[in-house]
From TrEMBL:
Domain Creatinase N-terminal intervals: 8-141
Residue span(s) of domain Peptidase M24: 149-351
Gene3D superfamilies with a match to the protein in the record: Creatinase/methionine aminopeptidase superfamily, Creatinase/prolidase N-terminal domain
One Pfam family from the record: Peptidase_M24
Native source species: Streptomyces cahuitamycinicus
Location of the region described as Disordered in the Swiss-Prot/TrEMBL record: 193-214
Official protein name in the record: Peptidase M24 family protein
InterPro entries for this protein: Creatin/AminoP/Spt16_N, Creatinase/aminopeptidase-like, Creatinase_N, Pept_M24, Peptidase_M24B
Top-rank taxon: Bacteria
Amino acid sequence: MSEVYAARRTRLREYCNAGGSAAALVSRPANVRYLAGAAPHGAVLLLGRTEEQDLLVRAGPTADRPTQERPDEALRVQTLPGAGGGDPAVAAAGLAARQGADSLAVEEHHLTVARHRALGSVAPLLRLTGLGSAVEQLRVVKDEEEISCLRIGAEIADQALGELLESILVGRTERHLALELERRLVDHGADGPAFPTSVATGPNAGRPGHRPTDRRVEEGDFLSVCLGATYRGYRCEIGRTFVIGTAPADWQIELYDLVFAAQRAGRESLVPGAACRDVDRAARQVLDSAGYTEGLTVQTGHGVGLEIDEDPQLSPAAMGKLDACVPVTVEPGVHLPGRGGVRIDDTLVVRPEADGGPELLTITTKELLAL
C-alpha cells in the first residue's frame, strides 16, 4: 500500500504546486487516512515540496486501541513531546516554515477559527491559503482495494441483518434490535457500525434518520432497518423494510412495490457519464407520479467510502456526472405520517455496461417478507 499512498500524495502535491502552494496541511481525519493510512487519532499530514519532506505529525502517547492497521511505513512520523503534546496542526505549520515553505494550503472547512489563528501565530511569515475539497475529490473514484473493503463490509452487514431476520422480533424494542445488530456487525469482523443503526417500526417505519425508541414490534407493523459496517475504515450501507407477523395489507404491498420500482429505476441509471441529478430524477419520478411528493426523502443517494456520506450526492440540485468505480447508495423511501413507510437502500459501485453494469454490494433479498 505504500506505493498507493505515495501516488495519492503525489497527485495532491501536483494540485498544490499548480495552485502556487509550497506545502499543504491535511487535518480532516478521513483525508489523513486516505493519504497516510490508519493514522493515530488527531494526527495531521504535512505535505512538503518533495516526498522526502512529507511528515505525519501526531500528539504524544495515546491510548489508541490496538489495531492491525498502521500508517504508511514509508512516511516519516513525528511525535510531539509530552503527554498532551500540543496541537499537531500548529506544530506542523511551524515545521513547514522551518522547511523553507513560504505558503501553506490548509483545509479551512475543517479548521476552527481559533485553530486557524494559531497556525498564523506560530508561523507569521507563512502565507495560509485554502486547500478546498481537493482531497475529497481525489477520494471520489475508488481503486479496487478500496472497493474490496466495501464489498467485505457489505457482506458483514448482510450477515448481521440475515441473522436478525431469523430471530423472534415481536415484542422487542427498536432500541434492543439496533444494539443487537451492531453487536453482530462486530462479531462478524467489522471495525464497528458505519453509522448509528436505525430500526423503525409501525408509524416510525420508513422515516429517514430515525433514532430507535422503546416502541415494541407489533403484529402487522412495517419494520424498516438501516445499518452499515465499517471495514478497514470503509463504510457501506443497507436498508430493508419488512412486515411483521402476518400477510401484508394491500396498502403495504402497494407502497412497497412503488418504492421498489423507484429504487430499481435509480439503480439502472448508475452508468458512467450519467448526471447525478438524473439518477435522482429517475427514482423520484416513479414516486412523484404516484402522488407521494410530500413524503419523499431529500436525496436518492450519496457516495460512500471512508465516510458514510461523501460525494457524489444524488439529489435534485446535484452537479457533476458519475465516473466508473464510484460507490454510491440508492435509497428512495416514502414515509406516511401516522402509518409508517418503506425504505429500500443498497450500496452499489458504478461500472460500465461492458463490465456488467452497476455492481450490487448489498445482496439481502428485497422481496417483501412477512417475518
